[in-house]
UniProtKB/TrEMBL annotation:
Its EC number is 6.3.5.5. It comes from Bacteroides graminisolvens DSM 19988 = JCM 15093. This is Carbamoyl phosphate synthase small chain. GO terms for molecular function: ATP binding; carbamoyl-phosphate synthase (glutamine-hydrolyzing) activity; glutaminase activity. Pathway: Pyrimidine metabolism; UMP biosynthesis via de novo pathway; (S)-dihydroorotate from bicarbonate: step 1/3; Amino-acid biosynthesis; L-arginine biosynthesis; carbamoyl phosphate from bicarbonate: step 1/1. SMART domains: CPSase_sm_chain.
Amino acid sequence: MQQRKVTLILDDGSCFHGKSFGYEKPVAGEVVFNTAMTGYPESLTDPSYAGQLMTLTYPLVGNYGVPPFTFESNGLATLMESERIHAEAIIVSDYSYEYSHWNAKESLADWLKREKVPGITGIDTRELTKALREHGVMMGKIIFDDDAENTIEATYSGVNYVDQVSCKEIIRYNEGTDKKKVVLVDCGVKTNIIRCLLKRDVEVIRVPWNYDFTNLQYDGLFISNGPGDPDTCDAAVQNIRKAMQNQNLPIFGICMGNQLLSKAGGASIYKLKYGHRSHNQPVRMVGTNRCFITSQNHGYAVDNNTLTTDWEPLFINMNDGSNEGIKHKKNPWFSAQFHPEAASGPTDTEFLFDEFVALLK
């Protein structure tokens, strides 16, 4: 099998050489690493990876193929986290050309080619991860060694990726006059978040990230995950602040939703050195000895020191002490930086959905 040689070039000038196994086009973006051992179909289709070159630290990738890309009657992807791949590329150490799984319908390579997403193998991903940990997240580009025209450059900071992945019109799920209604602000929502809400038999009203939903009839507000810099999403922050004028309105945010709720409450956000992207992040519920292993995917964090007196941390990351969620001291508003609905990943914290739905009046 003839494979084209490719080079990953980081912003600091370092180069990593490998071979292509996906779609053949040059691509650029923010280079991030994910330490999960499984779940590449879910990660690739997670809209939070928009604009990023995803490095998998687990060495063997592709051995269980890709499940069928089917959709439920409500339009949600059955086994994926969105309707397409959102990562700009995938970088692996050892791609398995042979796959075996009872539910696999195609290889990872065929899927990448069909969706026109590059994949490169033969990269020393451990060395690459060490470089990212020492320097911090860097921009990078994947170029083909036999292509004389390699002028592509990466841009990530300041780009509103949420606007690129959010829905463009209102979508309703599980409609019913007798059901509690939840407005879901779509900043790049994962399908399993919607599934978790529908499993609890609420009506979900999915709105674009910048839509003024405050005139709708609803019982609770949910703010989803999403890609990029939360500071590009001021329209969402302003709408959340308008909704917070109703102090009895239950509000729950996940990942980007944690950051936007925090900003609406007056806190500041900062960029992590290399982000949290894995299935094994330990977090502790503040004020207790309860610890949870969580699945995460984010590059920004809430600055605990900027929380106003009405707010307090709900969860803390046990590795680096960063914020993993907030709650209001009086009103039914809370959030989590991790993904309690994660697939594949730990689901020990899915009870947060139960707590949110229980608050709906």
